[in-house]
Amino acid sequence: MAEYKVKFEVFEGPLDLLLYLIKKEEVDIYEVNLTKLAKQFIEYIDTMRLLDLEIAGEFLVMASTLMYIKSRELLPVEQQVQVEGEEEGEDPRWELIRQLVEYKKFKDAAAQLQVLEVARENTFPRLPIKPEFEAERAAVKPEVSIFDLLNAVNTVLQRFTKRDDLRDIFDDKWTVSEKIEQVMKALTERGRLTFSELFAQAASRSEVVCTFLALLELIRMKQLVCLQAEPFAEIEVTRSQTVSLGSSPLPDAAAPAETVPATGLEPAADNPSGETAAATADETSAPASAPQS
Amino acid sequence: MDLKFILESILFSAQKPLSVKEIRDVLGNAAEQDDADATVKGLKKIKEADVTAALEQLIQEHEDAKRSYRLACVAGAWQFVTQPEFSPWLKALVGVKARPPRLSQPALETLAIIAYRQPITRAEVEQIRGVNVDGTMQTLTERGLVEAIGRAEVVGRPMTYGTSALFLEYFGLRALEDLPAADELRKIVVEKPPAPLTADPGLATAPPEGLKSDDGSQKAEEQKAEQPSEEAPT
Questions:
Q1: Span A111-148, pLDDT tens digits
Q2: C or N terminus of chain B, fewer CB within 10 Å?
């Protein structure tokens, strides 16, 4: 038997696949035969199963949509049952085609963007003369520790305890996420901020606390870096240069995970009585549990 | 002296791309100097529109002269840049720029959707693409090409996203209006095609009811198409 070379393209989503199948048929999207398309689509999913590829949920949803459309076409309109939740006159066929048309437009737009991207790679701007003052910025500033940050925020909070003018107490509705947005916006505009600038316009303790929490959150997400030139000097806040993928898990999380299996084994070895008690309670599982200890 | 050439000299020596406003500031500052003569003083109150017009003229002249360097306006700022066809030599000269890797196809598609339809929520993007976009959204956000710009006024107040200034710079666009085929892609496709979908016997029949204003004519067509479907079921 001759060797078969199978070229199997993997598609990222069901719309990609549908567009590919339509293109293969060489018909216009508006004129495609949806029943045939449904058949080809399902064939593809079967092949994926055969090749033991993981089938994303979206593919299965699309397959069922196609089956639904196909089934609707088999019945004349009068006998069709109106599915609850679907409006009168809503045509799943048209909805699918509309979706495909729109997606295709964006695919083409993406291709055009890629052309621009490549062109941009090949353009070189007139290189600017490096300004003189860049030299002093190069001084490496060590990152601050949490204690420096606490110290600094304490100083800011002192401002509020000292204040003894009578004011109306309003419930400031500051949320941490709002403060996060504000801080990031300010940083984008100004490049770098000093710690005191961050709290310059804080009107109350709760606002200071909120801003501080936002700062800590941003540090945890590695969006920000805090630097301090000398101990007890002003802390500088800048955007992080290298943004890592998502937030790294807290270092503490690893430790308990490692110790759990170790502790899990010991009790089993130490109290055979406990285990035999369990074994008598459930005789069928006793032979199974024995090799585990 | 021609305004064109004054602007050309400013942009030639500029240390970064300049916006029209910044150029005007330079002209204004020059007029303030002690040794400014009549010509220099004359440009103090020049209008932005005049500056832009002169810059556009320069672009045209460079193009006509087939210069290897041209003026480009990216994200609203003007700068001299080289033409792409000279990249082999320039790469040899300055070395390959440390540029981030090219965007993948899915990333470009997601980016295109956000660019044309901003402000847009994540759910709306997924609706168009038909797949989950968490991964690509993260990539695009990390690259600084996409940013959260607000919240939608619907239940749940989901975040809306748009492109950043870096996006314009990355693709060398002057402004969002310069996106290719902007008008067409901004619209959401709602019109139905005039002709009904093909009616193969027993297969795809014409839609039962027109989605748009069609009324009687659709029904008549669909009844005609009904007969073949009853004869040959799949």
A1: 999 999 988 888 888 876 655 555 455 555 666 778 78
A2: N
Over the range A212-232, which residues count as b (16 or more CB within 10 Å of their CB) and which as e?
bbbbbbbbeeebbbbbbeeee
> Which of B87, B97, B109 best probes binding to A when mutated, by most A CB atoms within 10 angstroms?
B109
Q: What is the dihedral angle through the alpha carbons of A270, A273, A278, A279, rounded to the nearest 10 degrees?
A: 110
Q: What is the span of the domain harbouring residue B224?
A: 192-228
Contact A106 B113 (CB under 8 A): yes
The structure's pTM equals: 0.58
| Judgement on whether residues A147 and A235 belong to the same structural domain of the protein | yes
How far separated are the first and last CA of chain A, in Å rounded?
53
Domain count, chain B: 3
Least reliable range by pLDDT among A230-234, B54-58, B114-118: A230-234
In chain B, the residue whose alpha carbon lies closest to the alpha carbon of A246 is B138
Within a domain: A106 = no
Pairwise CB contact (< 8 Å): B189 & A33:
no
| Residues in chain A closer than 8 A to B67 (CB atoms) | none
CATH number at residue B49: 1.10.10.10
Q: How many domains does the structure of chain A reveal? A: 2
Instruction: Report yes or no on A268 lying in a domain.
Output: no
Residues B122, B58, single domain; the answer is no
Smallest CA–CA distance, residue B38 to chain A, in Å, is 30
Predicted local confidence at residue A267, as pLDDT: 40
Comparing A196 with B22, the larger pLDDT belongs to B22
CB A45 within 8 A of CB A64: no
CA–CA distance, A249 with A149 (Å, rounded to integer): 21
Interface predicted TM-score of the whole assembly (ipTM), two decimals: 0.71
List CB contacts (< 8 A) between B210 and chain A.
89
CB contact under 8 A, A106 and B81: no
Instruction: Provide the CATH number for the domain around residue A205.
Output: 1.10.10.580
